[in-house]
């Protein structure tokens, strides 16, 4: 039997990094991985995170297990941060008061998605999920490995490098009633193209009418506007619709990987909005029952960093400033690249509409391969470029390479 185990294909994104490592061209650029790099191409630790770690180093007195769904402090501060904006979001505050939001620490965003997928498999009547086409490369595998069936709804028009809103609405309308629908809260991965508030209203009306279950994935909170409090328009609207009784329940998968730079600390959360406080208690108990045999409980270092930052006003402001400067740099290189790209035969305007860590160039697989082979510019073959790999020192080289490749 073991002789028959077939070789699995390597992970596409991680495979690119491996090839990049081997390349000896000093001008090589890695645009594959969605992790932040500073202007000299190096990874960073947010200064506010370092400070929180200094506090922990002095004050931490144990390395005991946390709860199955994390500490109460983590749950409360994350819930308050996302749904209450420290008292400024009326609908979210009311839902918290009614005890209707269950928040659990999870193993970052991926763990959060997997936990909700297993939960839906167990308790949701619909066993299918629809996800945007395209979506983050791991989404479908997470849901289907948990036993849900996954299908796509239209999202992006590759011909015109724009949101395909008419088909998006149509394909959501055509989905089976009560299906689970995956929504990217902001900075849609891989396209960087989000819905406007007006477009969200139209989509939410279809969701309400068809009784779809919204599952929101928020991996880039803060990367659209620079402020995490501004990037939660969809969450706010959902809270209002829940309050009005138009949408009964929804779930939010969230990650601090990008917006606190806690990638490898695996720190995130799942929040489930229940119809009542008593339903929330049952959901919470079932989350514990589900997680305990899976990994027992989540890691504590990242969650203690989050707790430390959220419980100190100065650290919180410092973190908001750190995040703003990270996003600011990405926007600067996005604009610089746009300016240097040759627009005679190629319309690059979509770059200016896209937000987040990626640009979805619209380049073909052949063009991406040519960039890799001739110019040592590494990106996934769907034409998604992580602009965190771009900086003042390589933006000219990159623009020249792209201009050469599109010339033909
Ligand atoms: N959702 C989306 C859309 C993502 O882009 C990512 C990370 N690339 C994740 C979820 C999960 O990230 P993590 O598990 O590192 O928090």
Automatic annotation (TrEMBL):
Q: How does the annotation summarize its subunit structure?
A: Homodimer.
Query: Sorted alphabetically, which Gene3D superfamilies does this protein's record hold?
Result: Aspartate Aminotransferase, domain 1, Type I PLP-dependent aspartate aminotransferase-like (Major domain)
The cofactors required by this protein are: pyridoxal 5'-phosphate
Keyword Acetylation in record: no
Ranges for domain Aminotransferase class I/classII large come to 27-402
This chain belongs to which protein, by name?
A: Aminotransferase class I/classII large domain-containing protein
Q: Which organism is it from?
A: Australozyma saopauloensis
Q: Does the keyword Transferase apply?
A: yes
Q: Which InterPro entries match?
A: Aminotransferase_I/II_large, Asp_trans, PyrdxlP-dep_Trfase, PyrdxlP-dep_Trfase_major, PyrdxlP-dep_Trfase_small
List cellular component terms (GO).
Answer: mitochondrion
Q: Which keywords does the record carry?
A: Aminotransferase, Pyridoxal phosphate, Transferase
